[in-house]
From TrEMBL:
InterPro entries: Tfc4/TFIIIC-102/Sfc4 (IPR039340), TPR-like_helical_dom_sf (IPR011990), TPR_rpt (IPR019734)
Domain of life, source organism: Eukaryota
Keywords: TPR repeat
SUPFAM superfamilies in UniProt: TPR-like
Protein name: TPR-like protein
Record's compositionally biased regions (Acidic residues): 39-48
Composition-biased stretches (Basic and acidic residues): 560-576
Cellular component terms (Gene Ontology): transcription factor TFIIIC complex
Region described as Disordered: spans on this chain: 26-54, 83-114, 543-584
Gene3D superfamilies from the UniProt entry: Tetratricopeptide repeat domain
GO biological process, one term: transcription by RNA polymerase III
Length: 1036
């Protein structure tokens, strides 16, 4: 529901209506009468049933009599009033006793009072209640179905029906019954809230990401929205809707909703905790930290002024202080965090009166165990408060937090005093807060005290292995790797960092530490791996937020404050394959083992591909799926081998495209990552013109993973064909592009094959833009000449799309540059003059510019004329057709194009001499006609050519409105067919096998007959149109 106004009544109403389906309730409610329960009754039960039916009939009759009596009384009163000559007036209401000013009627507040049910409905409800108490649920549903059939607005009937379905285990129908009941009382806020809560009760039993869970969240959202339409200040509905939004994965929207709830109830601690919880999940964590910190600070100030720890819906506790301090860590405001820690801890320990401690900003003697340093502070009274309210009362994890703050600020003396009280040999002190051990170890590693850091890491490992309540997560692996790095054990450190990434694929710090280690390697490969790791870390930093919903608690259990770290990392999904896997560069043995595993996996996929290939070609859908899966694995494996690609292409495959001017796509706060990325990029960028020398080894092997490179190319191209047949033409282009970018297939033969396959995919997909782009490659790079130009026209012709790309500006300019280049070369050769290279615009990489045999190309001139013709620039098109005709005057296509250009130009409004243009046009058309017939006669078997000539002349006459002349040539097309029938008398449709093969799809009999039929209709000759249709247009 992103993008909706959360308080828009129209949106909420539409959402609720869209989600409501009467089919989900009971099929029998709206179809005929109530279903008769299939129950075997004895004679006594028959009597009871008959008595009940009799009572029902009696009650209905009594109700009808009462209504009739009321109508009769009203009729008599009207008649008496009219007889007296006075208009009818109803009797005035009785006045209250006493004199004085008449009081205004009170306005009813709250939901409208329900109308009294008719007696027959009341009687059926009593029967349904009685059957429900007897646990006869089938009979209960039958009675309720009858009630809803008579009147679907009976609230109690829907609620009882929901209860019945819930008892029977039909929770889906029970929910819809409650929603139906809530719609009958649209302004009853508690009803909507209870309906939403009821819908969410089954949420824990559903898996994340399933359509069922999404549907439940949508229903709950709609119910809460309906409640807020009536009472916008309802804190339960507001926070409930925010909880639903958060569970839907939109943390930013949920944060805005919680802030709106806080405006109505600013001292509600549950809402403040929700804001703190959501602030850790939004994309901009610093902004969320500012919002959550402000909400907590306002609540703390209010509670301190009131002199209590009790807020609305809860008490302020130590856990709230821990959550509050996390936002100072995110904002890296260490000094302010230390001040808040000391102030709030003093308040929680009952010493708020000792405000003089706030003056000791850089000194933590307030939290010493003994009074040795405290007695020197003016105003301190040793006996005023117990010793447990000072250093002994501070929780161990908050003392660890103070140590971290002092270490970050560089106050070594105060930090060491706190560290002396954090004894790693006292396991019991850290059992409740084991995560603080990692914080202490990180601070010690930052201060180059690795020997002390390992003691805290060992204690964390011991607690994790003995209690089983915590795990050795990715953070611990990073700390362990940093310890090994400090001791110079690079192989062990590498294993720890890679283990952290395998544990949590979104772990940023592990990638940064691994990149720092690889950056110092002498080999180029190490710096390349460091760059890839930094880029991946930056991408993760940019994508983080607004998607972490797995840790979200359910909104309707008891709300327990979070202990320790506020955000446990999400473990890696074992079924999800990461695009980039860090490679071991230090541990040579494991690196070789990794290469062997990848080779074995490639061999397995190749064997599977060969096994199912024949069945896939035979049309087996299961085999096609298996073949595509194996081919994808092989293609991805080949593309991940960076020796086969230039550096820029390789990092593009991994998704790390270069940013504009080297700017990183990460928030500005992480400038260290951006600086490291830029430094590695500059070190890795090859000198201009030397990239091929740097990237290519001296000699490539003939195979990869035991598969020859020719076979690899077949896999690439066949996989592209399979993708385009499956409707994934963009993915097919990516595969062809990857094959073209590889440094393996650089010969002209393989490059030509790749581009032909690419063109085939574009033609199959009907993608004219890609067809034009590939055709330009053939015209520019591969083989400039007549065949390439014809291929350009053919590819644009077979695409069943508008000619927008064929006539686009880039295509026109490209063809025009080709013509200018050709003209310059020919003119230079004819004039035997020397020109500088700057005077010749060349668009080809071939040696055609120096070819002495090059001449003006008729196909190129005609193509550009056709482009201009298609854009209705007939005068310019005629000049290029004239140039082409000067080179080949007997070419039928040129004469046909010239004639049609004149005719179309004559039909334009701006034509100055229409008769002259038509005369010129038909002169060229009949020259085409004669040349075509002569060519057919010389060929000896030119029925198709004669048909074409007749048909084109007929179409030209139809174009100018001369239908009587057009019919004559259409008749020649049909007579051409009849002559063949008379001469041969064999073949399909009167054409023998040889002639049918020659004509192919160019048999214009049906088109000519259809046009004749149309002309007959236009001229009013219905009988002639029918005769033509029966003779030529009957499908056999």
């Amino acid at each position: 529901m992103d993008g909706m106004d959360l308080d828009d009544p129209a949106v909420a109403s539409a959402h609720a209506t869209a989600n409501f389906s009467m089919n989900m309730i009971d099929p029998s409610l709206y179809h005929g009468g109530a279903p008769e329960p299939d129950i075997q009754m004895d004679d006594d039960e028959d009597d009871v049933a008959s008595n009940m039916s009799a009572d029902s009939d009696a009650l209905e009759l009594r109700a009808e009599v009462e209504r009739f009596d009321a109508q009769q009384e009203a009729f008599v009163a009207r008649q008496r009033a009219e007889a007296a000559g006075l208009p009818y007036q109803p009797p005035p209401p009785r006045k209250a006793g006493g004199q004085g000013r008449k009081a205004k009627p009170r306005k009813s507040i709250g939901p409208r009072k329900a109308a009294k049910l008719p007696p027959d409905i009341q009687f059926r409800m009593s029967l349904a209640n009685e059957a429900f108490q007897q646990k006869d649920y089938d009979k209960t549903i039958a009675h309720l179905s009858e009630i809803i059939r008579i009147n679907s607005e009976v609230f109690n009937a829907w609620m009882l029906l929901s209860t019945v379905h819930e008892t029977l285990g039909n929770r889906e129908q029970a929910i819809w019954c409650r929603i139906s009941a809530a719609h009958l009382t649209p302004r009853d806020v508690p009803q909507w809230i209870s309906t939403a809560e009821y819908a969410l009760e089954c949420l824990e039993d559903l898996e994340d990401g399933t359509p069922e869970k999404d549907e439940v969240l949508r229903r709950a959202y709609a119910c809460y929205t309906q409640a807020l339409e009536t009472d916008r200040s309802n804190i339960t509905a507001r926070t409930g809707r925010a909880d639903v939004i958060m569970m839907q994965g939109n943390a930013s929207k949920a944060l805005a909703e919680y802030q709106k709830a806080l405006e109505y109830r600013p001292w509600n601690i549950r809402t403040v905790r929700n804001i703190a919880d959501v602030a850790l999940d939004i994309r901009d964590r610093r902004k969320g930290a500012e919002i959550a910190r402000g909400a907590y600070r306002r609540l703390i100030d209010h509670l301190q002024e009131e002199g209590t720890f009790e807020a609305e819906e809860g008490w302020f506790e130590w856990s709230d202080l821990r959550i509050y301090l996390e936002f100072f860590t995110i904002l890296e405001t260490w000094q302010e965090g230390a001040q808040e820690l000391k102030e709030i801890s003093r308040w929680l320990l009952g010493r708020r009166e000792e405000a003089y401690w706030d003056q000791w900003v850089d000194d933590d003697r307030e939290w010493d165990i003994h009074d040795d340093r405290r007695v020197a502070v003016p105003g301190f009274e040793p006996a005023r408060f117990p010793q447990e309210s000072y250093g002994r009362g501070l929780p161990i994890d908050l003392r660890a937090k103070l140590y971290v703050y002092r270490g970050k600020l560089g106050f070594d003396y105060e930090a060491n005093l706190h560290l002396q009280l954090l004894d790693p040999t006292k396991e019991d002190d850290f059992m409740d807060f084991p995560d603080c051990l990692k914080d202490i170890a990180v601070t010690l590693l930052d201060r180059d005290r690795s020997d002390e850091a390992i003691r805290f890491l060992d204690l964390y490992r011991h607690i994790a292995t003995t209690t089983g309540e915590i795990s050795l997560d990715a953070d611990f692996s990073v700390c362990q790797g940093r310890y090994h790095m400090a001791r110079g054990e690079k192989a062990a450190a590498e294993e720890c960092f890679i283990a952290a990434i395998e544990e949590d694929e979104d772990h940023i710090e592990a990638r940064v530490q691994l990149a720092n280690m690889y950056e110092g390697e002498e080999m180029q490969e190490g710096r390349e791996e460091a760059f890839l790791l930094v880029r991946e870390a930056m991408n993760l930093e940019a994508r983080r937020g607004d998607g972490v919903t797995g840790r979200r608690r359910g909104p309707y259990g008891p709300r327990k404050p979070r202990e320790g770290k506020p955000r446990p990392r999400k473990p890696r999904d074992p079924n999800k394959k990461s695009n980039y896997v860090p490679r071991r560069l230090i541990n040579a043995e494991k690196r070789r083992q990794q290469e062997l595993e990848m080779t074995a996996e490639a061999a397995k996929n190749f064997q599977r591909l060969q096994e199912v290939q024949d069945r896939a070609l035979g049309g087996d859908e299961q085999a096609k799926g298996d073949w595509m899966k194996a081919a994808k694995e092989l293609v991805d494996d080949f593309r991940s081998y960076k020796q086969f690609y230039p550096w820029e292409k390789y990092i593009k495959f991994l998704g790390y495209a270069a940013n504009v001017q080297g700017q990183a796509a990460v928030p500005a706060r992480n400038m260290k990552l951006a600086a490291m990325e830029e430094r590695l990029r500059q070190n890795l960028a090859p000198v201009e013109g030397q990239e091929q020398m740097v990237r290519l080894p001296l000699k490539f092997p003939t195979e990869h993973r035991g598969i020859p490179f020719d076979t690899w190319l077949d896999i690439f191209l066949n996989y592209a064909f399979t993708l385009v047949r499956a409707g994934q033409h963009r993915e097919a282009y990516v595969v062809c592009h990857a094959a073209r970018d590889s440094v393996i297939w650089t010969s002209s033969e393989t490059t030509f094959l790749i581009h032909v396959a690419w063109a085939s995919c574009a033609v199959y997909a009907g993608d004219e833009e890609t067809c034009v782009a590939i055709a330009r490659y053939f015209m520019r790079d591969y083989m400039p000449g007549t065949d390439s130009y014809r291929m350009f026209s053919a590819m644009c012709r077979v695409c069943q799309t508008p000619v927008s790309w064929y006539t686009s500006g880039p295509a026109q300019k490209f063809i025009l540059r080709q013509i200018k280049t050709m003209d310059n070369i020919v003119m230079r050769r004819d004039n035997t003059t020397t020109t500088t290279a700057a005077e010749i615009t060349t668009t080809t990489k071939s040696s055609s510019a120096t070819d002495p045999d090059i001449a003006l190309d008729v196909a190129l001139l005609t193509i550009y004329g056709h482009i201009l013709f298609t854009t209705t620039s007939y005068t310019y098109a005629l000049s290029y057709f004239a140039r082409a005709a000067s080179l080949d005057p007997s070419n039928p296509l040129i004469n046909l194009s010239t004639g049609l250009a004149y005719v179309h130009y004559a039909l334009k409004r701006q034509a100055t001499n229409r008769q002259y243009l038509l005369t010129q046009g038909f002169a060229f058309l009949f020259r085409y006609y004669r040349d075509r017939l002569d060519g057919a006669a010389e060929a000896g078997a030119g029925a198709a050519q004669r048909q074409e000539a007749h048909f084109n002349i007929a179409r030209a006459y139809s174009l100018v409105g001369l239908g009587n002349l057009a019919v004559e040539y259409y008749r020649k097309v049909l007579e051409e067919e009849e002559e063949k029938e008379d001469e041969d008398g064999v073949g399909v449709g009167g054409v023998d096998g040889e002639q049918q093969s020659m004509m192919g799809n160019e048999d214009l009999k049906v088109e000519a007959a259809f046009n004749v039929r149309t002309l007959c209709y236009l001229l009013g000759d219905v009988e002639g149109a029918r005769a033509v249709a029966e003779r030529w247009l009957v499908l056999e």
